[in-house]
Amino acid sequence: MWETDERVTKLFTKKSHHCNTSVIYLVQNLFPKGKESRTISINAQYMVLFKNPRDNTQVVNLAKHMYPGRVKYMQDAFRDATSIPHGYLFVDLKQSTPEHLRLSE
Length: 105
Prior knowledge:
By secondary structure, the protein is α+β, with helices and mostly antiparallel strands. It has one domain. The protein is built from 4 helices and 4 strands. Helix 2 (37-43) links the parallel strand 1 and strand 2. The longest helix has 13 residues, at 6-18. It is globular, with a radius of gyration of 14 Å.
């Protein structure tokens, strides 16, 4: 599978920083299993989160990592963004992004 491919990991960890390339992490499972998956996820600059009625715990777990002590902040943003059909929450994970601009619809 692609998540175990070391070439993809290099794209996320090295080439995106040295080749002026934006990396968008678009997945159906925020925490896939695989040797390279965590490295890819942590090095993603952007995430686009869609509603998955079968498993809402993934967003809660991500919120616990990003906003410990303020989990409800991200949960509310996600609920608002996905309240319309095909809605999504855009997460900007670049270090230079101001905190108030990190989550958007």
